[in-house]
UniProtKB/TrEMBL annotation:
<keyword id="KW-1133">Transmembrane helix</keyword>
<keyword id="KW-0472">Membrane</keyword>
<protein>
    <submittedName>
        <fullName>OTOP3 protein</fullName>
    </submittedName>
</protein>
<dbReference type="Pfam" id="PF03189">
    <property type="entry name" value="Otopetrin"/>
</dbReference>
<feature type="transmembrane region" description="Helical">
    <location>
        <begin position="125"/>
        <end position="149"/>
    </location>
</feature>
<keyword id="KW-0812">Transmembrane</keyword>
<keyword id="KW-1003">Cell membrane</keyword>
<feature type="transmembrane region" description="Helical">
    <location>
        <begin position="161"/>
        <end position="179"/>
    </location>
</feature>
<keyword id="KW-0375">Hydrogen ion transport</keyword>
<dbReference type="GO" id="GO:0005886">
    <property type="term" value="C:plasma membrane"/>
</dbReference>
<feature type="transmembrane region" description="Helical">
    <location>
        <begin position="390"/>
        <end position="413"/>
    </location>
</feature>
<feature type="transmembrane region" description="Helical">
    <location>
        <begin position="87"/>
        <end position="105"/>
    </location>
</feature>
<feature type="transmembrane region" description="Helical">
    <location>
        <begin position="191"/>
        <end position="211"/>
    </location>
</feature>
<feature type="transmembrane region" description="Helical">
    <location>
        <begin position="267"/>
        <end position="287"/>
    </location>
</feature>
<comment type="similarity">
    <text>Belongs to the otopetrin family.</text>
</comment>
<feature type="transmembrane region" description="Helical">
    <location>
        <begin position="425"/>
        <end position="446"/>
    </location>
</feature>
<keyword id="KW-0407">Ion channel</keyword>
Length: 572
């Protein structure tokens, strides 16, 4: 596997070379020894590209299987394979990824004609911003883990201190790499870059898998402590596995700093899983863009900007949903952490979802109907970012749908006439419908071609901004300018077509609704486990496997839906 360089393009390549910047006169073609007998350079390049993707994909698959075997062995046989062994394997992978990222930053990307094209659709600002947000929370999580392990150093190994240190360096380096190079379409060292991207993707997947299993253990420990408290209060505890009694070997001393490290560690754990999943999606897009050539017209295509214009009812309804949801979430958290949690807070929690989910479903259905009536052209241009968005939306929705169907079976088989069971049943059914309708709306919107606004309106806006910046505004003039801005907003809203207006309203409402539905489970609101109905039906361990498979995907689905809905909003 190597790359061959053609310094001057042939006669048949003049059209292609005219579409790239003027200073790029070097084209790098991929070469693979199996296809050295191909007569056409382009055909040899395409076959070598497929072979490089296949080889790097197989490499990533083997790394994932090896790490999964280690993690599974740790779960089922804790004597032979310990958590420290898994940490050592992940540390080795992280160090290898660090070496490759540094080599890419210092070597590959700085080579002549290395980055001739940049994918404008890859790495939008909200995705890169989520990498920084979740990366910062993950760094803070590792700091808490270092502090907690340092206090309990008498009963913990030194690997538990070294692993978070390597994790902090890995998170910082990877976040910098993705922020600055997520749009790159690298044109040199194709196969080595693909292998580096795939190994880094596999490492992030294994970090996510380990985080999910560790989060399971933490939730089980908390649940066991709560059952002990219920037993002291005279209530009958639920069934639980016998091995959970072995978790109290290393207890936190009764000090404030230790409690802070412990609580912060448990609170920030979900952000670590989200960070790993977002990084995997961005690295996959970079892997698809290796060796990709983008036409000059595609590169110069204007990207729509986010403007809060043409929306009134969507922000009002969405803000109301966020405020009410925040109040319900605080009530739930206060009651759930008490010694005697009441069922009333679960009734309020389910009632909030039962009111909000139908509104979201109806809005998504109306938006899909408007998309069908708009007669917009479909965007058929190859776009790895959009293809990945569709796959992630469909795949992540399976987590919530899976949990809902298991919950429906358990509730129908037990006592569906009970008030709490009836609310939980309605919650599960409505959640399935909402996921399906929202996916149809977002995926249909992502495939619609963007029609830019008229140039006259843009020139008028630019003239108004220039005139406003050239004169000084006094106190009286400021009031007049505010009045003019309000009238301009009303004018813009009234001159939008009713179809675009409704699409913007629906998209903005769904964005805010998905944000509050992301916040509630991320920060510890898990009624599917804490109400105890499904847990008593399936058994403690089985229900935990179901919840910890579906819950991280459900949280990731809400976050990824926000990005897709923002795309639909700005293109409406």
């Amino acid at each position: 596997m190597s790359d061959t360089k053609v310094s001057k393009p042939c006669r048949h390549c003049k059209i292609r070379s005219a579409s790239v910047p003027a200073d790029t006169t070097t084209i790098h073609y991929e070469k693979f020894w199996l296809y050295r007998h191909c007569s056409s350079v382009q055909q040899r390049h395409q076959q070598a590209q497929k072979a490089g993707q296949l080889f790097s994909g197989l490499l990533a698959m083997n790394v994932v299987f090896l790490g999964s075997a280690f993690i599974s062995s740790m779960i089922f046989n804790r004597v032979a394979i310990t958590l420290a062994d898994v940490w050592i394997l992940l540390s080795i992978l992280k160090v290898l990824c660090l070496f490759w990222i540094i080599y890419y930053l210092m070597g590959t990307s700085r080579q002549p004609h290395a980055v001739l094209y940049r994918d404008s659709h890859a790495g939008p600002i909200w995705v890169r911003g989520s990498v920084l947000l979740f990366g910062s929370c993950s760094i803070l999580l590792n700091v808490f883990q270092i502090g907690y392990s340092t206090i309990l150093v008498h009963c913990k190994s030194r690997v538990e201190i070294l692993f978070p240190v390597i994790g902090i360096v890995f998170i910082c380096t990877q976040a910098y790499f993705l922020w600055h190079h997520s749009k790159d379409c690298i044109q040199v060292q194709h196969n080595f870059t693909r292998c580096g991207l795939m190994v880094t993707t596999a490492t992030n997947l294994l970090v996510w898998l380990l985080a999910v299993t560790n989060d399971t253990l933490h939730m089980e420990i908390e649940s066991q402590l709560r059952e002990v408290e219920q037993r002291f209060a005279g209530k009958a505890p639920s069934s639980h596995p016998h091995w959970c009694n072995e978790t109290a070997l290393c207890t936190c001393p009764n000090t404030t700093i230790c409690k802070i490290f412990q609580k912060g560690y448990l609170l920030l754990y979900p952000f670590n899983t989200e960070y790993s999943l977002v990084c995997c999606s961005m690295l996959y897009v970079m892997w698809k863009n290796v060796g990709r050539r983008i036409s000059h017209h595609h590169n110069l295509e204007t990207r729509p900007r986010f403007k809060l214009q043409g929306v009134v009812f969507g922000p009002v309804l969405g803000t109301s949903a966020v405020i009410i949801g925040a109040c319900v979430f605080m009530m739930y958290q206060i009651q759930a952490t008490s010694l005697d949690p009441s069922h009333q807070v679960l009734v309020i929690y389910y009632s909030y979802y039962i009111v909000l989910l139908p509104l979201m479903s109806v809005g998504a259905v109306i938006g899909t109907i408007i998309h069908a009536l708009e007669k917009k052209e479909l965007d058929t241009v190859q776009n790895p970012t959009r293809s990945l968005d569709v796959v992630l939306l469909m795949g992540a929705a399976l987590g919530q749908i899976c949990m809902s169907y298991f919950s429906i079976v358990a509730l129908m088989a037990s006592n569906p006439r009970d008030l709490l069971n009836s609310l939980a049943l309605a919650y599960s059914v409505l959640m399935i419908l909402q996921n399906i309708t929202q996916n149809v709306f977002v995926i249909d919107g992502l495939h619609r071609r963007h029609t830019p606004p008229a140039k006259e309106e843009d020139t008028k806006e630019e003239q108004n901004r220039e005139a406003y910046s050239q004169r000084r505004v006094s106190v009286l003039e400021l009031g007049q300018e505010i009045r003019k801005a309000s009238l301009s907003y009303i004018h813009t809203y009234s001159h939008l077509s009713w179809k675009r207006r409704v699409l913007r309203e629906i998209s903005f409402f769904l964005v805010l609704s998905n944000i509050i539905l992301w916040i509630m489970p991320t920060f510890g609101s898990h009624p599917l486990f804490e109400n105890g109905m499904e847990r008593s039906f399936y058994g403690y361990s089985t229900w935990f496997v179901i919840v910890n498979f579906g819950l991280p995907l459900a949280v990731f689905y809400r976050m990824h839906s926000v990005g897709g809905l923002l795309e639909v909003y700005v293109t409406a």
